[in-house]
Design a protein that fits this description.
53% of the residues lie in helices and 10% in strands. Strands 3-4-2-1-5-6-7 form a seven-stranded parallel sheet, with helices on both faces. The protein has a six-stranded mixed sheet with strand order 8-10-11-12-9-13. Strands 14-15 form a two-stranded antiparallel ribbon. The protein contains 39 helices and 15 strands. Strand 14 and strand 15 form a beta hairpin. It is of the alpha/beta class and 802 residues long. The protein folds into five domains: 198 residues, Rossmann fold (3-Layer(aba) Sandwich), CATH 3.40.50.1220; 46 residues, no CATH class; 172 residues, 3-Layer(aba) Sandwich (Rossmann fold), CATH 3.40.50; 55 residues, no CATH class; 108 residues. It is globular, with a radius of gyration of 30 Å. The termini are far apart.
Amino acid sequence: MTIELDRLIQNLDVKRTVLFFGAGSSIPSGSPSAGDLATAIAAEFKIDANGFSLAEIAELAELERDRASLIRFVRQRFPRPNPTGGILNIPLYKWRGIYTTNYDELLERSYQIRNQPAHVITTNYDFSKDVLPDAQPIYKIHGTIGQDFVDGHKSRMIITQGDYDRATDYREYLFTRLANDMAGGDLVIIGYSLSDPDIKSVVDRVLAIQGKMSGAGGAVYLVLYQRDEARARLFESRGVRVAFGGIDEFSAALTRKGPAATVVESSSDDPVQDSQILSTITIDVQHSIGAFPPNAVAMFNGWPATYADIASDLTFTRTAANTIAATLAAGTKQFVAMIGASGVGKTTAARQVAVQLERQGWRCWEHKTDFELVADEWISAAQKLQAMERHAVLYVDEAHLHLSSINEIAEELVEQKLSNLRILMTCGRSQWQYRTKSPYLSKNMSELVLSKLANHEIDRLILLVSSDNSIKPLVEGTFLGFSFQEKRRRLADKCEADAFVCLRNIFAQEKFDDIILREYAQLGTADQEIYRVVAALEYAGIRVHRQMILRLTGIAAGMVAAALTNLVDVISEYDISERFGVYGWRVRHKVIAGIVAKYKYSDPAAMVELFDRVIDNLSPSYRIERDSINEMCNLDTGLPSISEKDIQNRLLRKLISVAPGEPIPRHRLIRNLIDLEKFDLAETEIRVFESDLGTDGPVARYRIILLLARAIYTPGIMDEDRVVILRKAEAQASASAVRFENNRHVLSAYCEVGLELLKRTRDSSTFDAALKGLRAAAHRMSDEEATKAVRSYERRYFEFKL
C-alpha cells in the first residue's frame, strides 16, 4: 500500500538519507523528460523513433552526422540552469549522497544560489579534485550537459549506447559508492514515473545492492510524480515503499517536518569552533584532556598516548618535546617538523608539546589526518588569532599527505605576518625528505629527527613504570626484580632503545614478536583473517576503513559489531565521517601491524595477491581510498617494495585505471620504465600524463632523466648522436629549472646532464649553470638536502677534474 509523503519524510533521518534524482525532478525548472528529448532528437536527425530508446536514437543520430552535432542539439534543448521551486531547498540539508541521471546543472546551480559547498562528480578524474570536507557530493551517473570530450573535457555525456559501453567502469564506481552510502541509511528515488523504462533498471540495481548487504541497508522509497496504483503494487511487492508526488511536494514535506540545517553565526574566541568546516575535522586539545579519561592499559596494549594520558603524567617526557615546545613558544621558528621511523614515539612527543603549550594558555589543535587540510580556513583562523592576540599551535600528523596545503598556509602566514599560529608536523623520514617544500615553509622551519631513546629518556621511563600506581601493576614481576642499572641495560640492549618496543618489553620478558604471534593464535579463524588483512594493509600504507574490509573479506555488514568485539584491544574502529558512513579501522600500533604482516604474508606472492585484491575492490569516490592509492606507492612498504618491477608496473597500471586523476602511480610507472630501459613506453606515459594532468615537477624531471638515459644507454649509436640527445636534455632541463626553480630534484637532474656533457665534450658551461641554480635554490629555501646535493656535485666535479 502506498504511503503519504509526510509519513515518508517523518521516517527519514536526513543525515543518513541518499537521494537519487530522475528527469522528473528537473521538469518544473524547464528541463525535458527523457521521452521528450528522444522525440526531439529523432525529429531533428530524421530518425524513425518507433521502438527505440533514447540511447539508441542518440547513437543513430551520431552515426547520421557526428558527435558534435548531437551534443550541440541536446544542449539547445536544456535551458540555462534556473532552478525553481523545491529543488532550491535541497542544499539546505546535509544528505549522505546525491545521485542523478540528469544532464542538467540545476542541482549545481541550486547549491551556488544557497552558497553551500558541493562536489560534482562527472568522470573518474573528478574523484581526485581537492574539495571541502563538508561539501555535498553530487554524482552525475550520465555526465553533465556542459562537458563532453568533443569540447576537450575528460567527461562525456552518457547519451548514446556507445557512451554507456565506454563509461562502464565509471558507473560501476558510482554504484559501489551508492552501495556503501546505503549501508545503515535510506534511499529516496525521486523524479521518475512508473511508465519510465529507466525506473525498472534503477530499482533492479538498487535492490540487487541491498540484497548483498545482509540486512544492513535501510528502506528504499520511490517518490513518483504520476499516480499509478497498479504499477506501484508491483514495486511494493519487492519491498520498495511508494509515495506519489514531485520535487516540490517532497521539498514542502521536508519543510513541514522541521527547519533545515542553517548556519549559526558564532561570536566565540575560538576560531576553530567558529568554522563549520574546522570544527568537524579538528581535535581540540583542551576539550580532549577534559572529556576523555586516561587509560594506562590501552597504552600498554600499544594505542598511542592520548592527550588525557599525557596530562595525567602516564607518559615519560621526551627531550625533543621540551625542545620543540621552547622553540614554538619563543617564536624562533614558526614551523617545526619532527621526523622519524614508526615506533620512535613521534605522535606522543608531538602531543606532549601541545599539552605543554596548552598549560601555558595557548589554543592547541590537532588535524584529523583522514580529512583534507583546508588551507583557506586555517589562514582565516590565523587572522582571527592575530586580531585577538592569542597564540596557538596546529599539530598535523602524516604531514606528507597534506604538504601542498601546508605549503599554502605557510606562504600566507609569512606573507601576512600572521605569526600567532604555529604549525607542528610529524612524518616518516622517507616520506618527508624527498618532497618539495615551499621556501616560506623551509626557511621558517626547524626540522628535528626523533630516533632511539637516549639514556636519560630510558631513565625517565623506568622511573615512570616503577612508581606510577596505574602502570606498576602491569609490569612483569621479573623486570621489577632487577636493579635500576640492570633494568636500563636490558632495555637498551634487548629493545635497542626503540620507544614502543622498549615500553612493551617492560611488561614481559619474552621476545616481542612472540607476544604478538601468541595473541594472534588465540583468535578465531575468521578474526585472524580480519586481523592479518588489516595489519598488512596498514603496514603497506593503506588507510583502512570498514567498507574496504567488508569488500575484501566478504564478512556480512551485520557481523561487524561482533568482529570488533572479538578483536577488542587489537583493532579499533573510529569515526571518519558519520554523515557519509565512513569508519576507519586500525591496528593499535604500526610496529605490531608490521610484525603480523611479516609473519602472515611472508611469501611475496601472497602480498602481491593482496595488493591485487585491494586494487580490484577500490572505490576512488572515497578520499581515504584515494590516499591509499598514493600511499601504496611508498618506497618502504608499498608496491615499490616488490622486487619484480614488471609486477610493480602491472599493479601500477591497474591503479592508474582506477584513479586516472592521481599523479603518484603514474610517476612510479614512468620511473620504473626508465629504469627498465623501456624508453619508448616511458615517453608514451609522459605524453599521456601531460595530456591528462599537465606537467608537474616529477614529470619534468623524468623527461630530463629519460633523455639522459637514452643518451647513455641506447645501444649502437655514435658518440656524436649521444651528444645531440644530451643537448636536447640540456634544453629540457634549462626550461624546467626556470619553471620549477625550487625543486631540487629537477635541478639535480639538470646537474646530471651537465656532468655527462662535461665527460663527453669537456664543456662545463651546462654543469656550471645547473649548479648555480641548485645553489640558489638551497639558499632560498634553507634546504639541508639541497645543500647536501650541492656538496655532492661539487665533489664529483673536482673528482672528474682530477
